[in-house]
Amino acid sequence: MKKSQLKSLGVITILALVLYSFFIFSGSSNKDAGKGVTNGDTHTKIKNKGSDTMVNLAQAWAEAYTNISDTVSVEVSGGGSGTGVAALINGTVDIANCSRQVKAEEKQKALENTGKEPIEFIVGYDALAVYVHKENPLSNITIPQLAEIYGESGTITKWDQLGIANSGCRSDKIIRISRQSNSGTYFYFREALLGKERDFELGSLDLHGSKDVVEVIGRTPCAIGYSGMGYATDHVKMVKVAKGQDEPYYAPNLENVIAKTYPIARPLYMYSLGEPTGEAKAYLDWIFSAEGQKIVEELGFVPLSSN
Amino acid sequence: MNFLRICFSFKGRINRAAWWLLNLPIFVIFAVSISIFDSHTQITVGTIPLLILVWIHLAVSAKRWHDKDTPTFWILLHFVPLIITIFLFASPLFAGSWILFPLVFLVVLINVLWIIYELGFVKGTEGSNQFGPDSETSSESVIDVYISLCGISSIIFVFGIFFFVFKEGAGFLFSGLNIWEFLTSEEWYPTSLNNKRYGTFALILGTFSVTALAMLIAVPFGLGAAIFVSEFCSPKLRETFKIVIEFLAAIPSVVWGFIGLTLMNQMIIKVFNAPIGLTMLNGGIMLALMSVPIIVSIAEDALKAVPDSYREAAEALGATRWQVIYRVLLPAAKNGLLAAVLLGAARSIGETMAVLMATGHSVNIPLGPLDWIRTLTATIAAELGEVARGDEHYQVLFIIGILLFTITFIVNLIADLVIKGIRQS
Predict the structure, then answer these.
(1) A148 pLDDT higher than 70
(2) Are A254 and A302 in contact (CB under 8 A)?
(3) pLDDT 10s digits, B262-311
(4) C-beta atoms of A206 and B374 within 8 A
(5) Most A CBs within 10 Å: which of B29, B51, B276, as the mutation test of the A interface?
(6) Is B9 helix (H, G, I), strand (E, B) or coil?
(7) Residue B127 contacts by C-beta under 8 Å, 6 or more apart in sequence?
(8) Smallest CA–CA separation between B20 and chain A, in Å?
């Protein structure tokens, strides 16, 4: 009896020893991973997530930034403005990309969750172009007309109500192409057309992604839709837009957006959790520099420019 | 030897299979938990489970050493890496001298590999030795336990998924959501700024109509193809056919969706003179193409399972080939054919990406196959990505998940009852 008791005591002592060393081992390896130490010098990762509209732009920035700094790499992922804000609230990203403004309740949530408030930076502009099929004779449209096409119980449903003969579309029915109802683009377009009170009429085709919108319109003579200015292809036509009936029409291009005469242009935002510090601040500063803003223009967006 | 004694007792012998079966899960659990939990959780929550795992490892290894007629204390060999680790990390003598690291690593590696070789690959002594009788059948009780765990796990997963989906949606389902309006209103305005409305009637109708249309196309083609492959083909042609049909099943649904968005869209505009080709018809054709391979392969198996004596008896009575199929084979294979159709339908109801791209994804009550629609699954896929966690809209999307769950449950239940009814008659 005594001998076996001694034995189990021995086993337990050994187990305790084992346990102790396991924890030291795993603990120390965790610490190493956290610091991200490679070859003796510190390597920093900036995590950047959010808007699908901005994902190409953010990626281009991240790539160009590798030439600026050897020790900083930027990790970019998309998923939508909402995803970026959610990650910011959870404190899992350094910078969130957003094609809409962060809502007050989201700011509140971030403050409760992390103790820091999201700080807003406008990094460029995106003009939403109104697209039609390339054979569609429509060349001008006003915001009130668009509101009657897209808005709830709108009155314009046929192309001839816009005063044109759309010969490619035999049924003459306007097919409304839209985006899924919680994308930043959808929010912005709805507000630009209808304000905060009115909703879109149901029955629009809510496509998934800016590219799909242009793709479908390029193959559908009856369609009208909206998407970023940078997504234009040879199969579609951008329509000039006017604020009201007697106002001048403006094409969606760099000059008009910078001059703020084109009516449906929106700012693109980046949000950091609290005032940015260290490498994240350096990165944002670089984005605002001439070099960073050149990339904005290259990708079909509108830079902040000199004003 | 029962399972618990194999796990915890330091007496007796076990064979190599039992050693592997118990040590591999221990290794996996250990590796996963040190990588996902922080060291604070490891110490507070993990101590007792870790103690149990280490105990099991030592007990199993001791019995394996016994199996090779070696005494219990050989398990001390298992501590060599740990003792070295303690020295390296805790002793001031070695602190900071990282040059030793490769050397230590080599010693540990050799030690571990040797233990794995001795315990995992070398056979025990034949017949009985001083620690007990021959160990050849000792792994059986372990395998027994594992197989029952596999069985139970499928039940656990189903309930786990249902519990998760339900938990996410439950808050809004029981307080706030008007269920009558949810099921019968067509107004789906989840992001309206002043008047949010959650009506899924159009979405439910969309799901059912596109599935029905897909089945209308897929069932005749699928069953026809199955009859052709099983009854009329030469063996060589049959093999070719089966390979081609299985290839059809291997095309990812996003590719079907893309074909629908581009090619099919234009074709429908041209052929039917429709304003746009992203319609129920487009989605239905895509879904039919996706479910035909499932219907064909299961229906073909069902037809093949009908014994040849049925065919021979029918032919001996002077039945024509058509009569053999219509009067004998189809009634005999009824259960299997029904299962094929239902699995095809289940595929259609659950499909997401292709219908998201091909049907137009538009909240609309369809009046004909050339109307654009939106399905329940596509709504979840399109909107869940950008919704704030825990939001009303987020919860409604999970309630749609519960609705889909219920629909599939009812379909399966009906299928079971129908098959039971067929069996009894």
Answers:
(1) yes
(2) yes
(3) 899 989 988 998 888 899 999 999 999 999 999 999 999 999 999 999 99
(4) yes
(5) B276
(6) coil
(7) B133, B134
(8) 21
SS3 B255: helix
A203 CB within 8 Å of a chain B CB: yes
Cβ-in-10-Å burial (0-12, 13-18, 19+) of B32 comes to: exposed
H-helix or E-strand spanning residue A178: strand A175-179
Give percent of chain A above pLDDT 70: 86
Size of interface A-B (CB pairs under 8 A): 142
Contacts of A305 (CB under 8 A, 6+ apart): A258, A293
B360, closest residue in chain A (CA to CA): A205
pLDDT digits (tens, 9 = 90+) for B114-146: 999 999 998 888 888 888 888 888 888 899 999
The Cα of B387 is separated from the nearest Cα of chain A by a number of Å equal to 6
Residue A33 has pLDDT above 50, yes or no: no
Query: Chain B closest CA to A290's CA: distance in Å?
Result: 32
Q: Under a CB-based contact definition with an 8 Å cutoff, are residues B282 and B265 in contact?
A: yes
Q: What does the alpha-carbon distance between residue B312 and residue A216 come to, in Å, rounded to a whole number? A: 56
Contacts of B407 (CB under 8 A, 6+ apart): B207, B349
| Alpha-helical regions (H) of B9-139 | 16-36, 39-44, 47-67, 80-90, 100-120
Instruction: Give Cα separations from A234 to A219, A223, B29 (angstroms).
Output: 11, 16, 56
pTM: 0.75
pLDDT for res B94: 59
Q: CB distance B275–A173 less than 8 Å?
A: yes
Distance CA B180, CA A4 (A): 70
On chain B, the residues whose CB falls within 8 A of the CB of A39 are: none
Q: Which domains does chain B have, with CATH numbers?
A: 3-138 (no CATH), 179-424 (1.10.3720.10)
Query: Is any Cβ of chain B less than 8 angstroms from the Cβ of A136?
Result: no
For residue A6, the chain B residues in CB contact (below 8 A) are none
Confidence grade of residue A8 (pLDDT, cut at 50, 70, 90): low
Residues in chain B: 425
A229 touches A252 (CB < 8 A): yes
The average confidence (pLDDT) of chain B is 88
How many helices and strands, by DSSP H and E, does chain A display? 10, 12
The length of chain A is 307
Which 208-267 residues of chain A touch chain B by CB within 8 A? 208, 212, 215-216, 219-223
Beta strands in A200-302 (DSSP E): 205-207, 223-228, 236-242, 265-273
Among candidates A222, A116, A235, which has minimal Cα distance to A165?
A: A222
